[in-house]
Amino acid sequence: APTELLSYVSAFTSRARLGVAVLLTGVGSPVHFARSLNTLDHLCGGRLDIGLGAGEATECERYGLDVETRGQRFDETVRIMKRLWTEKVVTFEGAVHTVRGAGLRPPTVQQPHPPLYFGGRVPAARRRAVELGDGFIGAGATSTRDFAQHVQHLRGLLAAAGRPPGSF
Asked: What band does 88 get if pLDDT is binned at 50, 70 and 90?
């Protein structure tokens, strides 16, 4: 698994930032992901960059998850993780996830939390990146021409959200 591999690599590096593109956070427990990534942030001394993605429909099917709630599950997972990293005790009642009285200690090394970069090719992935993330990494199979169009779309979303491009 990527987090275990990055934990191993962190023991042999001291300056390089560490990350993977992308973790499919919508297929597991948000509390588990938040705890694992918090541990990794500590092991690498705050050099963690987190790439997140909702995953393809086939990946949801492999895990026995409802494809129709994929986006909602992903959004709730990210919101819960961010709250766990920034609040002492979290209770969350969503359409997909429920968390009661969860907390993480110690807090992440990077404050308010490690940077979150979102992957994907669809407009909803770019909307999520602007709304919930710190950057966008696209999708590996995207052509240069399509990625350039995605960047233009992102710039429009950032402007509409009042976010300066340098903050993303």
From this structure: very high
